[in-house]
Structure formats: structure tokens, C-alpha cells
Design a protein that fits this description.
This protein has no helices and 11 strands. It starts with a strand and ends with a strand. The strands form 2 sheets. Strands 2, 4, 5, 6, 9, 10 and 11 form a 7-stranded mixed β-sheet that branches. A 4-stranded antiparallel β-sheet has the order 1-3-8-7, with no helix packed on it. It is mostly beta strands and about 110 residues long.
Length: about 110
């Protein structure tokens, strides 16, 4: 099983990005799909979670600005990020069922 995350890039403050994470291989059904991030010099932190029962959960800094969604038919997880700020600069990782990690995609917010 491999997770491939993409969609990162450089945006100005206030901009938006949409991250995707696609699973390949025999992953079966996934209960918990999550996004984490790690800023330079900081520990990796939880961003958002999407459950198979359609439930979602966000870290406080993401609530109201980020939207997590999933397409189980494609084994793909998304993260729509709006109103991005410089403190959102980080490598964003997807994490499936607490087993599999993506390679990370870099988000840079800078003017």
C-alpha cells in the first residue's frame, strides 16, 4: 500500500490550496483518514480527520478554514484549505487507519 499526497505549493496569505492523497495497492476499506502537518522545527501535529461514517474532526486552527473530505470509491482523501496564513506553512501528510503515511506535500504561505 502506498499513499501519494499532492497539491501543495506556494500561495500568498489569504489564498487557498486543495490537497489530495490517493492510496494505491490492496488497502481495502479505510475507517480513519487523517491529515497531519509538520512545520520547520516543530513536531508533527494533527490537522483533520474524516471517518468512514462521514464524521469529521478538526484541530482548532483548522476549524472554519479547512474542509476535509474523502472519496472512498477512489481511496482518496482531500483537504481544502482557505484563508491560508504564514503559520500554515508546513509539510502536510496523509495518514490512513493509523498504519500508512504519505510522503508529504509542501505548503508554503508567503507574500
Amino acid at each position: 500500500v502506498q499513499l501519494q499526497a499532492f497539491g501543495g505549493g506556494t500561495v500568498q496569505p489569504g489564498g487557498s490550496l486543495r490537497l489530495s492523497c490517493r492510496a494505491s495497492g490492496n488497502i481495502g476499506s479505510v475507517n480513519v483518514m487523517q491529515w497531519y502537518r509538520q512545520a520547520p522545527g516543530k513536531e508533527r501535529e494533527f490537522v483533520a480527520m474524516a471517518l468512514a461514517n462521514s464524521g469529521t474532526h478538526y484541530n482548532d486552527f483548522a476549524a472554519g478554514r479547512f474542509t476535509i473530505s474523502r472519496d472512498d470509491s477512489k481511496n482518496t482523501l482531500y483537504l481544502q484549505m482557505n484563508s491560508l496564513q504564514p503559520e500554515d506553512t508546513a509539510v502536510y501528510y496523509c495518514h490512513f487507519d493509523k498504519l500508512y503515511w504519505g510522503q508529504g506535500t509542501v505548503v508554503t504561505v508567503s507574500s
